[in-house]
Amino acid sequence: MEIVYTLDHMDYFHSRQQPILKACLTRWFQNPKDLHLTSPTMTYPFRFQQWLAMYESRKATTLVIKRNQWIVGHLSFSVERERIHLFHIIIDRDFRGQGLATRLINAAEQEGILAHCTQATLFVSPKNSPALDLYCSLGYTEFGRTKSGSLKFTKDLKATLPIR
């Protein structure tokens, strides 16, 4: 059987999609380190309602990558004026190192470009070496720290904006 990866949108507030997202996240966050690297403000053990509360105040879009219809990766983003902010980038441990995070980030950046964003931003824990390497390889550069100590990264999207 051929392995097929597909990208799809999911909605944390869609009654049929919410249990699917909850099941994925609960599985992914059995290890407190994974939870802390993804969302430093979350407490262990993982509580979906606490996670959901972060999404209530954001106009977030969530992309998932599926392998033969099973979710193996997740990325959320919000568009704020001319900036797209990426957050909660997660790849199932069994599927890391296959370029799936790159596919998710590229897809999110394309959505930002279509929304006329000129900049992409994200925050990352300084302890998350694999993520730091990935973001740098994709053209992101550090521009400071958050109050909680996460590194702030940015990428200029102007060169890839469609001609108006």
Gross geometry: globular
- Strand element count: 7
Distance between the termini: 43 Å
What is the fold-level CATH name, i.e. the topology of the domain at 5-116?
Aminopeptidase
CATH class of the domain at 5-116: Alpha Beta
Classify the secondary structure makeup into a structural class.
alpha+beta
Report the CATH architecture of the domain at 5-116.
Answer: 3-Layer(aba) Sandwich
Question: What's the CATH superfamily of the domain at 5-116, by name?
Answer: Gcn5-related N-acetyltransferase (GNAT)
Q: How would you spell out the order of helices and strands?
A: EHHHEEEHEHEE
The share of residues in extended strands comes to 25-35%
Sheet having the most strands: 7 strands, mixed
Mean pLDDT: 94
Helicity range: 25-40%
By DSSP (H or I, 4+ residues per run), the number of helices equals 5
- Low-confidence segments: none
Strand order of the largest sheet: 1-2-3-4-5-7-6
CA radius of gyration is 15 Å
Write up this protein.
- The protein has 164 residues and is of the alpha+beta class.
- It has a domain at 5-116: 3-Layer(aba) Sandwich (Aminopeptidase), CATH 3.40.630.30.
- 31% of the residues lie in helices and 31% in strands.
- It is built from five helices and seven strands, in the order βαααβββαβαββ.
- A seven-stranded mixed sheet has the order 1-2-3-4-5-7-6, with helices on both faces.
- Strand 6 and strand 7 (151-156) form a beta hairpin.
- The radius of gyration is 15 Å and the shape is globular.
- The model has no long low-confidence stretch (mean pLDDT 94).
